[in-house]
Description:
This protein has 99 residues and is mostly helical. Helices cover 46% and strands 6% of the residues.
Amino acid sequence: MQLFQYHYELYAAKNGNRFYGEKVLGVKTDRCEKCMTGVLISSILLFLLVGPLLLFSEYGGLISPNPVLHGEFDVSFEVSKMVYTNTTTGELLTGLTTK
């Protein structure tokens, strides 16, 4: 059953990447394709960066004035203490020292 699954994954990848198989390596890409790809990626990135600012700012006009008066953001990191033993002496050692 697993061999069948591998065969299916290879077949699906081959059919899904038919465009890459038909394109000859080293052939120049059309200017139109380059421009459309560049415009599409740039517009998506611009929308992701500027969209929330316009949506949630009071100057965007899409939502009524923002009622948020105060915000808080906390970041915390947890470091676990690593404990191991020295194999030559059997002495207990700790990876982190605390004061």
